[in-house]
Amino acid sequence: MMLTQAPKGTKDVLPKESYKWHYIEGEIRKICFEFGYHEMRTPTFEHTELILRGVGETTDIVQKEMYTFNDKAGRSITLKPEGTAPAVRAFIEHGLHFDTQPTKLYYITPVFRYENVQAGRLREHHQFGVELFGSPSPSADAEVISLAMTFLKRLGLDNLKVNINNIGCQECRKNYNEALKNYLKDNYDKLCDVCKDRFERNTLRILDCKEKTCQAIVKDAPVITDYVCENCKNHFEGLKHELDILNIPYEVDPHIVRGLDYYTQTVFEIITSSIKENLTICGGGRYNNLIKEIGGPDMPAVGFGLGIERLILTLEARGIEIPKPKGVLLYVATIGDKAKDEASKIVFDLRNKGIPCERDLMNKSLKAQMKYANKIGAKYVIVLGDEEIDSNKARLKEMETGKEEDIVLSDLYKILLQRV
RNA sequence: GUGGAUAUAGUUCAGUUGGUUAGAGCGCCAGAUUGUGGCUCUGGAGGUCGUGGGUUCGAGUCCCACUAUCCACCCCA
User: Fold this and answer.
1) What ipTM does this complex have?
2) Which of the nucleotides lies closest to A284 (Cα–C1')?
């Protein structure tokens, strides 16, 4: 029955593992605060037109991976397939470009792509993204790259490699496209079908083709860095200089072009090289025309996106432990109805004072209550029966050591405060 | 969109050439210890064998379709 099955390509995060997400999200918020980025939340769906314009009609996303539908008023709506276009839309809509620049934003958002499912590739996945609007400087590129690198390192990832490339501005891209087309023309028949199609529509992407025959052809193709204009060249040199200063190791890979149309000048990927394979864990670049393209001012921007599911998988594959949260501080075990009422009051009062504590809600035996306390990771247990209530005294048991001590019940809060 | 593998308890998996009542580990519940957890031992609950059709005296097992999962390709995060 479909009733009890999540749709293809979606995943539930169960209580057992939600702590992983809390941890990652916490680290994201921490580093973004330190780097001076502020959160922006945009809607789950946008007008289809925004995605078409923003992401680009020739991309795979737009051509075959969009979740698009008409709402009741007949508007074409699309679940956002990435975070940049919506962020740019919101930036323009709310006039953030009239503020002092730069504008530095981040987001954690679900994104949707209708594609075949594989490990770390879902139809709904979650992305951490960073966008820096307003600065044309290579220092901005370096800053977002350094943020991503620092973030991944802090989580414990090693063997990180940054691949960068310069794909120029619209002007130099035109020249390069021509040169590339000229070169490929002679080998057109040998290209794979997909690339034949790309030849007219999106020549650059042929560089990215994984077909062996295409790769062989591409190997001797003209290199884009030879065709970029003075300005773009300087920008790229500036970026390399900044990365050197920050001690971030990088490699220039003339074949990365990224899947999105809006990139200009810098594109980059962060690869984690494991024993088995290299995995792109983060990708981004500069998009100097997108804001204008969507109807805003002529303003440069740079950013990246990072898939959180894939990140968690990578951490686990490396055996990197995500810190587990602590259990409750106190479990109040009870014997009898009188004790239940008393425990109810005590627990409610302690919780109000900020002490995380639990008590029995299942009418379990004392033994079962102890088991439960152990299971939920209670640091202390107190057993309440008629005796304790009448004498206002009880034994506070430390679960890890098994040691017990006599305490006065009314001092419980004071004692716990000292133990936190 | 293409190709391959798989689908049995909450979970990970056994299940012989098709043959009575479908099993195990872990988890859950209880007892051993009637007011004290972890370790151990004992017992218990839990399954329309993914869904629908077909072959057969008889299907978890064979055939078909659908759905989902995993892997690879395409592409990307």
Assistant:
1) 0.86
2) B77
